[in-house]
Amino acid sequence: TLPPGRYENTTIDLTAAPGLGALKVSTLKTAPIDGQKPGTSGLRKKTAVFTEGKYLHNFVQATFDALRSTGADLECQTLLIGGDGRYYNDVAINIITKIALANGVRRVWVAKDGLASTPAVSALIREGGPQWKKVFGAFILTASHNPGGPNEDFGIKYNCENGGPAPEKLTNAIYKNTTTITSIKMCAECPDVDPSVLGETVIEARDGSRRVSVEVVDGVAAHVDLLRTVFDLGAIKALLDRPDFSICFDAMHGVTGPYAKALFCDVLGQPASCLINAVPKDDFGGHHADPNLTYAVDLTKKMGVDRLGQPVGSSQGVPSLGAASDGDGDRNMILGTQFFVTPSDSLAILAAHADCIPFFAAQGGIKAVARSMPTSGAVDRVAQAKNLALFETPTGWKFFGNLMDSKALFGGTDYTPFLCGEESFGTGSDHVREKDGLWAVLAWLQILAAHNAPGKPLVTVESIVKDHWATYGRNYYCRYDYEGVDKPKAQAMFAAMTSATSSNTGRVVQGSKIATADVFEYLDPVDGSISKNQGIRFLMEDGSRVIFRLSGTAGSGATVRMYIEKYVPPTGALHEVCANVVGDLVKAALELSSLVKFTGMESPTVIT
Ligand code: G6P
Ligand code: ZN
């Protein structure tokens, strides 16, 4: 019997097709394809890899096989599919839909126009629909900030019913299945559903034995509605309406354009001119849709900062707040007038002022903060001052999700509301289980609104950051990326550093004494799982840190990340140029790693 519900709009009856018609399950022969191990955030490869043969089919079938073995209820619940709009998004949505239906999924939600930001997917999963429409998981078609297009990257990741990325246990099971797969189930004769039209299409088997539904849902409205409950948009509107305040949001031709339009223009009444690059493009306009000082050039130009975040030109006409999001809308960069806020500082400042945000205030204030290991220790000082629980996790948002969902496992201690962030331009809270670019922008606006009484001179982003440093001290921080490194060379460099960890302890390099050198390993306090090899750390006696990691999101080749941090207390020099302060540590890092020798790269490709 069918679950109760609405089966409206269209009913497709393929009476011409034999037997089960549109719902006939074809079994396609296949063979394992190498390299389907998901990285930090899903499977990302060159688009041509995905479009060839059954690459995508294999991964999707392997996911259903893994889900079935965990006892997921595919038949009575809903699967959501959406993506960041990059090239191949539309084709992939139809392939996944047909494999899903053949694997017993009864209801598929497709995001309108195929577009759903990563945080919106998380919101949609968590919100679900009327009881029988509970969403058990989602495929998000994204390679995040990696460039898109036929010659660039495509990606897919699976999120679970808590709205967060699949835990390693599941991604390992998926990967294992990809190494043994022999067949794919697919309703190959099922018609494509047009994702540009909202509403439900019911597809019936010709013999009446089965009835499924594919519904196009509005991902934008779901997310905006959630954000309305988290913030006081009235206060934010009053700030935005001040004659001395203006905002510029750069969607970088990624998925957030329609979200930003709905939020800033339709809800908050701002002119369309406050948005740039707000029309999604399947190649992100040929750019890296990555909100940082190197790639978000349209925004940095507008905000009057150079590639190192230093002011350039005049401040005349520069907006009060500038922000950008990445391809799939989970990352954010925040700028004030001619002023760059590092993601690590942004996290610390949001933690310090969390009470300004109604979502937190209503629950008695935040109780816990979490940061990834390479993220600076700025937030640690806020946690200490405010007596918040602090977690240091490996890189990857999924580790935060585990902590947020852990209530009962901490002996009844409820750590929500929860705030987390990463140096990689990710910030968010337990309103969803992904980082959330627009959330971060609204969080900054809410804090600014709280500091700006009507009729008083404007309290700026820069002054909020500087006040923070004056209270807590400043963690000077930068990250060097070496992209496109030959993988074996990068691995050799890490192997050499790993074997030298104990002999490096106590050594003095470029004036810094190494207190500890180790390989970061994480014991998840919730599920007891251990994540090894999460980066090499050199912790200096004065609290400075030098960290090396291999990126888990590089589409091809290896990306070496080198993270440098130096803490200066409130009594120290707080307004220096970062590059000058960390210069010796950079030299130390290059010496400790022999990076130039191993990789042949004289200088980084990106500095953030
Ligand atoms: C994605 C993940 C983040 C992670 C980031 C950096 O954006 O969602 O959680 O911090 O990638 O990953 P990488 O391994 O490239 O440094
Ligand atoms: Zn992203």
TrEMBL record:
Catalytic activity from the UniProt record: alpha-D-glucose 1-phosphate = alpha-D-glucose 6-phosphate
Listed GO MF terms: magnesium ion binding; phosphoglucomutase activity; UTP:glucose-1-phosphate uridylyltransferase activity
GO BP term (any one): carbohydrate metabolic process
Organism: Pelagomonas calceolata
Cofactor: Mg(2+)
Residue stretches making up the Alpha-D-phosphohexomutase alpha/beta/alpha domain: 36-183, 222-335, 345-471
Keywords from the UniProt entry: Isomerase, Magnesium, Metal-binding, Nucleotidyltransferase, Phosphoprotein, Transferase
Family according to the record: Belongs to the phosphohexose mutase family.
GO cellular component term of the entry, any: cytosol
Name of the protein this chain belongs to: UTP--glucose-1-phosphate uridylyltransferase
Residues of the full protein shown: 450 to 1057 of 1057
